[in-house]
Write a structure and sequence with these properties.
Chain A: It is found in: Membrane. The complex is a heterodimer of chains A (about 400) and B (about 300). Chain A has about 400 residues and is mainly α. Chain A contains 16 helices and 4 strands. The longest helix of chain A has about 35 residues. The relative contact order of chain A is 0.10. The chains are: A mainly alpha (about 400), B alpha/beta (about 300).
C-alpha cells in the first residue's frame, strides 16, 4: 500500500469514528432539528406577543362621530376598505357615535373612556373632518381620513361607489425580484454561519474528548497527526452534508404541502445565478468556510489541555465568526458597496459574502476567482493549523517541515 | 531491509527545552525476542519508545523500525499500548478493538470477529458488547491491549503494560506477551517492575538519566554482581570472622559474603580445619532487582518526572 493510500485510509478511519460518534447520539437530533426548535421558539414567542397585542387590539377602536344618516354609509365604506387588509394589519374596529352638543369635547372625552381604547376619533363634516389620535394612532387617523373621503365620494355618487368588474390574473416573474434575491442572500449567509458555528464547535469538542480520554496518543502512534486533523475535519463535514441533505430534501418537498400563497412566497426566494448553480456554489462556499474555521478551531483547540481552556480559547474565535456573519450580512444588503468588496476579499468572511453574492448577482466569474482565492487561504490555514495541532497535541515541538524532510531523504 | 533487527536506534537524542530527556540512546532489538526497556521514573523510557515509533522526532540520531527508516512506513505492522491508556468511553469493547485494528489497516469486519475471539480468550467474553465506560479500569486496559494485537502485528510495543493491573490480569498479560512471541512477534516493553522483566525478557536495556546504562540478557545483568554465600557454622564464635572474607556480615548465627574470586572450596577447607564445621551453605545469585539498583544507583540519575 502506498503511503498516500495508507494516509487516506487512516484519515477516513478517523472521520468515520467522528461521524458515527456525532450522528448516532441523541444530541445529534437536537442539531438536526435545531431549525425546527428555533422556529418553534420563535413561533411561541410570536404567539405570546400576538396574544398580548391581540387582547389589547380587541379593545381598541376608531370612532366616527357622525350624524345618523352618515353612520350607515361610513360603516359600508369601512367594510369595503377593511377587506383590503390582512387580519393582523387591519385598523381597529369602527364605532359610530351620534354627535352631542359639543362634538370636539365629545371627541376628546372618547380618549378617556374606560371601556375601550380610542385610537383615533373623527368628528365634523366629511369634507373637512377633524381627526384626533392618540399614541400609536397615526395610522388609524390616516385610515379615518380615507374612510371619510370614500364615504363622501359614495354619497356624492348617490349612496354607493360604482360597481366594476375587475379581471385578476396572477403573473409569475421571469426574473427574480430584488427583494427575493436579498432574502436568498441572507438565508445563504445565515445557513453557512449556522452550520460552521455548530460544526467547528463539534470539532473542538471531539478534540477535547480525545485529550480527556488520552486517546490522542493511541491515534498519534497509529496514524500521522495530519490524518487525525483531516479525519476530524472530514468527519464533521460528513455531519454537515447529512444536515444539508436532510433539510434540502425537506425544503424541496415542503412547497408541495404549503398553501399556494406561502409556496409562491418561497418561490420568490430564487437566487440570481439560478437554483442548481446556487446549490453548487453554496456547497463550495460552505466547504471553504468550514475548512477555514475548522482548521482555526482545531489548531487553537489543540493548544488547550483542558475543556475549560478549550472553551476559553473558543470564545474569541466564536466572536470572530459572529463578526464575519455581521460583516457578510451587511455586504449582502449592500451589493457593490465597499463593505461588500471588503467582505468578499477578507478570507474568513469571503465564503459567506460570496454565497450571498451568488444570490444577488448572476455573474459567475467572480466565484471562480473567489474560490481560487479561498482555496489558497484554506491551504495556508490547514498547513498552519496542522502544525499547531501537532505541536499542541504532543507538546513536543513541531514536525520537521516537509522541505527539511525532503532534504534529509535526498541526502 | 534488515531481517535481524526489529528495532534499531543509534544515538537518539530528545531535548525538551534545555533538558536532554534522552541522551544518545543506542538499542538493537532482535526479531522474535522479548526486549525490556527498564529504568526508574523519569529515565526517558516513554520518550525513547515514542521516538522509536515515530510519534515524535528525535533531535539527533537515527532509528529503524522493522527495517524502515521512517517508522510510519511500518505502522500497520506495529501494535502499541501507551503508558496513558485511553479509549472512547461511549464505544463498545468490540468496536474499540476493531477501531484500533482499523487504524492499523485491519478491515472492520475481521476486526470485530477477532475482537470477540480475543476477548473470550482473555476471559472478557461477557463484556464484548459493553461500553468502555462500564468496564473496570483493569478490564478497559486489557481491551486496549487486545486492540494493540488484533491486527497481529510483527512488533508489539508496550509502555508500562503491567501498571494498574491486578495480579490475575498481570498473569494474563504475561501469557499474552509470550503467546505473541510464540506467534513470531517481537515484543518491546518498558517497565520498572523487575520481576516481569526477569521472567519475560530475552534481552533488556536499562536507561537512567536519559542514557543507556546497560544492554544484554537478564543473566548478563545479574552477572554484574558477584554471587553471594550464605554460610552457617556448627559453632557460633565471633573469632570466626578472622577466617571469613573481610566483607562477611553477621546475619544471626549465619554469615553472608561475596563468593571469593578463587571459589569457595579453599575457604571451606579452612573453616573445617578450624573446627567451625558447616551447618548450612548456599550460594545465591543476585536478582535483576539488585542488578538494576546497582546499575541505576551507580549513575545516580534517578528521578524527575518523565516529562514526555
Amino acid at each position: 500500500m502506498t503511503r498516500f493510500r495508507r494516509t487516506l485510509r487512516q484519515t477516513f478511519t478517523i472521520a468515520r469514528r467522528d461521524f458515527i460518534a456525532t450522528v448516532f447520539t441523541p444530541i445529534f437530533l437536537l442539531f438536526l432539528f435545531a431549525p425546527v426548535i428555533m422556529g418553534s421558539f420563535g413561533a411561541i414567542g410570536g404567539m405570546g406577543a400576538a396574544s398580548v397585542s391581540g387582547g389589547a387590539q380587541d379593545k381598541t377602536r376608531i370612532i366616527a362621530i357622525v350624524p345618523a344618516g352618515t353612520a350607515r354609509p361610513i360603516t359600508q365604506a369601512d367594510a369595503g376598505l377593511r377587506a383590503l387588509f390582512r387580519d393582523e394589519e387591519a385598523p381597529p374596529a369602527l364605532t359610530t357615535v351620534a354627535p352631542a352638543a359639543d362634538p370636539a369635547a365629545q371627541a376628546r372625552a372618547a380618549f378617556e373612556t374606560k371601556d375601550v381604547d380610542a385610537s383615533a376619533v373623527l368628528y365634523g363634516p366629511l369634507d373637512a373632518p377633524q381627526i384626533l389620535y392618540g399614541p400609536r394612532g397615526r395610522r388609524s387617523a390616516d385610515y379615518l381620513g380615507v374612510l371619510a373621503q370614500t364615504t363622501l365620494a359614495a354619497q356624492n355618487l348617490g349612496g354607493a361607489l360604482p360597481a366594476i368588474a375587475a379581471t385578476k390574473t396572477p403573473v409569475t416573474r421571469s426574473t427574480t425580484s430584488v427583494g427575493g434575491q436579498h432574502q436568498s442572500a441572507f438565508f445563504a449567509v445565515f445557513g453557512i454561519f449556522f452550520l460552521t458555528l455548530f460544526l467547528s464547535g463539534q470539532v473542538v469538542g471531539t478534540m477535547a474528548e480525545e485529550r480527556n480520554n488520552k486517546v490522542i496518543e493511541v491515534l498519534a502512534a497509529a496514524v500521522p497527526l495530519e490524518s487525525v486533523f483531516f479525519g476530524k475535519l472530514i468527519g464533521m463535514f460528513g455531519v454537515a452534508v447529512l444536515f444539508v441533505a436532510f433539510w434540502g430534501t425537506v425544503v424541496s418537498q415542503i412547497t408541495t404541502l404549503m398553501p399556494a400563497g406561502a409556496a409562491a412566497a418561497l418561490g420568490d426566494l430564487t437566487p440570481a445565478v439560478g437554483g442548481p448553480t446556487f446549490a453548487l456554489l453554496f456547497a463550495a462556499y460552505f466547504s471553504m468556510a468550514y475548512l477555514l474555521l475548522g482548521s482555526v478551531f482545531l489548531g487553537v483547540g489543540a493548544q488547550a489541555s483542558t475543556m475549560r481552556e478549550i472553551q476559553m480559547l473558543s470564545l474569541p474565535i466564536t466572536i470572530l465568526q459572529v463578526a464575519m456573519f455581521g460583516l457578510s450580512s451587511a455586504a449582502v444588503s449592500r451589493p457593490g458597496s465597499w463593505i461588500a468588496t471588503a467582505a468578499e476579499l477578507f478570507p474568513l468572511s469571503s465564503p459567506f459574502a460570496m454565497a450571498g453574492r451568488a444570490a444577488n448577482s448572476p455573474e459567475l466569474w467572480p466565484h471562480v476567482a473567489a474560490l481560487a482565492w479561498q482555496a489558497l487561504w484554506v491551504t495556508i490555514f490547514i498547513t498552519v493549523g496542522a502544525r499547531l495541532f501537532r505541536r499542541g497535541v504532543l507538546q513536543s515541538g513541531s514536525a520537521r517541515p516537509f522541505w527539511r524532510r525532503k532534504a534529509k531523504a535526498t541526502a | 531491509m534488515n531481517d535481524e533487527w526489529a528495532v534499531t536506534a543509534s544515538g537518539i537524542v530528545k531535548r525538551f527545552g534545555d533538558r536532554r530527556v534522552v541522551d544518545g540512546v543506542d538499542m538493537m532489538v532482535p526479531r522474535g525476542s522479548v526486549y525490556g526497556v527498564l529504568g526508574p521514573n523519569g529515565a526517558g523510557k516513554t520518550t525513547t519508545l515514542r521516538m522509536l515509533l515515530g510519534i515524535i522526532e528525535p533531535d539527533a540520531g537515527s532509528r529503524t523500525l522493522l527495517g524502515y527508516d521512517n517508522p510510519r512506513d511500518a505502522s500497520d505492522r506495529v501494535g502499541y499500548l501507551p503508558e496513558e491508556r485511553g479509549l472512547y468511553p461511549a464505544m463498545k469493547a468490540r468496536e474499540a478493538i476493531a477501531f484500533l485494528g482499523a487504524l492499523r489497516g485491519l478491515d472492520w469486519k475481521t476486526g470485530r470477529e477477532r475482537a470477540v475471539v480475543l476477548m473470550e480468550a482473555a476471559g472478557l467474553g461477557h463484556a464484548v458488547d459493553e461500553k468502555i465506560r462500564k468496564l473496570s479500569k483493569g478490564m478497559a486496559q486489557l481491551v486496549q491491549l487486545l486492540g494493540s494485537v488484533v491486527h497481529q502485528p510483527d512488533l508489539l510495543v508496550l509502555d508500562e503494560p503491567f501498571s494498574g493491573l491486578d495480579p490475575v490480569n498481570q498473569e494474563r498479560l504475561e501469557a499474552l506477551i509470550l503467546a505473541e512471541r510464540d506467534r513470531g512477534a517481537t515484543i518491546l516493553f518498558s517497565t520498572h517492575i523487575m520481576s516481569h522483566a526477569e521472567r519475560l525478557c530475552d534481552r533488556l536495556a536499562i536507561i537512567a538519566g536519559g542514557k543507556r546504562r546497560f544492554e544484554g540478557t537478564v543473566a548478563d545483568a545479574r552477572g554484574i554482581l558477584p554471587q553471594r554465600v550464605h554460610y552457617t557454622p556448627h559453632r557460633p564464635d565471633p573469632a570466626i570472622r578472622g577466617v571469613l572474607p573481610a566483607d562477611a556480615a553477621a546475619d544471626g548465627d549465619s554469615w553472608r559474603f561475596e563468593l571469593p574470586n578463587e571459589g569457595i572450596e579453599s575457604l571451606l577447607v579452612r573453616l573445617i580445619d578450624a573446627g567451625y564445621g558447616i551447618s548450612g551453605l548456599s550460594i545465591e545469585r543476585p536478582g535483576l532487582h539488585e542488578a538494576f539498583v546497582r546499575i541505576v544507583g551507580q549513575h545516580g540519575d534517578v528521578a524527575k518526572e518523565d516529562a514526555a
